[in-house]
Amino acid sequence: MPRIPFKLLLASSTICFGALLCTGCIDDSYDLSKDIDMTVGLGGDGLGVRLGNTERITLDNILDVDQSVKLDANNLYYLVEDGSTNISFNVDRANTNVQNVTINTDSHVLDYDRARWLLEQNFGTTIPEGTAISVPADFTANGEADAKEQVSLTIKDIDPVVKKLTSLQISPLRLSLHIDMKSSDNVKFGVRSIDNLRIVFPAMLKVSKPTMGTLNGNVLTIAHVDCSSSTKIAEIMVEGVNAGTSGTPNANREIVFSEDDSRISLTGSVNFGATAAFTMQPSDYADVKFDLRFNNNVGATATTPVEVLNVTGRFNPTIAPEVAPIDVAESLPDFLQDAEVALPVTNPTVRFMADMTEIPADLNFSIKLTSRKAGAADCPVELPSAGKASLHMKKKNTIYFFQGNAPYDPEKPGLISEAATQKYQTANLSSLINPLPDDIAVDLKNDRVKLNQDKDYTIELGHSYSAQADYAVFVPFEFSNGLTIVYNDSTNSMNSDLKDYAAEGVRVSAKVENTIPLNLVGTIRAVDINGNEMPGVRFNEVTIQAGNGGETPVMSDLVLEAKLDDPQDLKRVDRFLFNVHAASGETTTPHSLVSTQYLRLTDMRVRLTGRIIADFN
Question: Do residues 370 and 440 make contact, with C-beta atoms less than 8 angstroms apart?
Fold first, then answer.
């Protein structure tokens, strides 16, 4: 992790030694390598150089900020991984049609007995019962009509995701009511008018905009209808269907309406007028029938297709968003890639955002995150830890799952305080990233996202609904115990500076000021020009005491020393490899890693120890 101090100390020391030992007045007309032995022994106490002090080395100099590790507005380091998906579903269209209806009266409107009584009243005569009646050409009569029938509306091929229909909005149907005579053969009556007509349309039909009369709910009343010039009584619009008690599809995926829901009935006084003189026998009658015609289709069995615009009810479509795993290992910086890295952070936060402005239904929502690492058992976490969250229709939703006292969101902090934002505290969220996984699998399948089954919603059949969903995992570098990060680095090649020297050891010392709240434990290994480790050059481990994270630094001494089994090994050293463990140690006080925390080395000294040989041949 602390790349600057080690590279600065060791690389600078070799340059300083080279400059010191190679300075002098030498006549370049001599070939010293031939005439003079330039091998010089420098004594047994070694050679020391004081290097002075460094500037402050802040965490900003040590930790690289990239696409995964960032700084928030308070200079706090955090790790972020994110992704997106799409929540989509649709409900297939149904096959719907309605059939014309002929409505017959329950009993004859005008029969022999009624006609005989009316003639007796009009002419003041008595007509013996059972005898033929002479009906004059100008005779008028009336009778009460009482009729009812079932309207055949069929809804078939209903998508299995439909659990219950409450209503359907349809492309408006024009329904016209016609009247026609129905009588025995020798009767010569015609319908002149109807008074006090009352029509009760089926409960399943939503009707509106009659061409005459008064509509109250599904009941149309008309005081008087003149039928002398047209058989059409009135028109009315059908704009929807109420499923009523019949809204649950049967095993054949059909809606079958009950008799009560599909019945149409009417009553009224029908006025007849004779079209010619005729004789009425006891078996004769004058009757009427009513025809319901949809969209002016003619014929008692004519069928009219119904275009369903949308339906209201309860639905359970399969919603199974495909979500690519969050690839953690691929984007981690070097200092977080070592196997020993541990991040026992106090407040990891998952933010889930879904734009539900185009979705006409609430969704129950949960998510399963599974931390996966090669050679280790998977670690699943259910969010929320119990029950379901909700994605509310027609709005943008934000849900936080967090481990600390409040969500952490360095990108959109204002969302946390919005009234509509949902927040779920989750105790074991940090297990997803400690240890850091190769990836985190995101599971939104297996009924984790589904329509709320406790409410009715209005869905357009055949329409694909879609919501963009974005998720992010934020890991602020706030910790109590056990944080471990690892930094590996190396010097540039130093062989050209060291190849002229042999020594028994190398020692670097300094005073350290530290505000970084981590114990820094460093080791160094030497490698030759072929990259092979040199076991004969062995440095001790060095520890820099942790700071307290505040402005006042913690002071400690640093001594870094290598013993060489063979003094000549110094000539073969090419590079030094650094490995630095940064660990929080045991503390009950929460700390944060902030970019302005620093190290500063003062009174820096470097010494080649023991007997030193400089070979200038």
Answer: yes
8 A C-beta contact, residue 471 and residue 573:
no
Kind and range of the H or E run holding 18: helix 3-21
DSSP 492-548: ---HHHHTTEEEEEEEEEEEEEE-SSSEEEEEEEEE-TTS-EEEEEEEPPEEE----
Region for residue 522 given its phi and psi (left: phi exceeds 0; alpha: psi -120 to 50; beta: otherwise): beta
Q: List Cβ neighbours of 183 (8 Å cut-off, separation of 6 or more).
A: 189, 284, 285, 286, 287
β-pair partners for 206: 240
Which residues of the chain are modeled with pLDDT < 70? 1-54, 481-482, 487, 489, 491, 578, 585-589, 606, 615-617
Give the helix/strand (H/E) hosting 13.
Answer: helix 3-21
Omega within 30 of 0 (cis) for the link into 435: yes
Q: What is the pLDDT of residue 537?
A: 86
Distance CA 332, CA 432 (A): 15
Burial of 228 (0-12, 13-18, 19+ CB in 10 A): exposed
Query: Residue 443 to residues 58, 329, 368, 400, 467: CA-CA distances in angstroms?
Result: 40, 19, 5, 17, 17
Identify the helix (H) or strand (E) that includes residue 329: helix 328-331
394: exposed, middle or buried (C-beta count within 10 Å: 0-12, 13-18, 19+)? exposed
pLDDT tens for 572-581 read: 888 878 677 7
Structure token pair of residue 63: 């930790």
- As a whole number of angstroms, the distance between CA 148 and CA 597 comes to 89
Alpha carbon distance 321, 448 (integer Å): 10
Half-sphere exposure of 480 (CA within 13 A, CB side): 6
137 alpha carbon, distance to own chain's centre: 80
Any idea of the CA torsion for 353, 595, 440, 67, to the nearest 10 degrees? 70
Rounded distance, CA 279 to CA 348, Å?
Answer: 99
Write out 169-213 in H/E/C secondary structure. Answer: EEEEEEEEEEEEEEECCCCCEEEEEEEEEEEECCCCEEEECCCCC
- Span 338-386, pLDDT tens digits: 777 777 888 999 999 999 999 999 999 999 999 999 888 999 999 998 7
Q: How are strands ordered across the β-sheet holding 303-305? A: 153-156, 95-99, 303-305
- Which tokens go with 117? 């009584």
| The pLDDT of residue 470 | 95
pLDDT of residue 273: 93
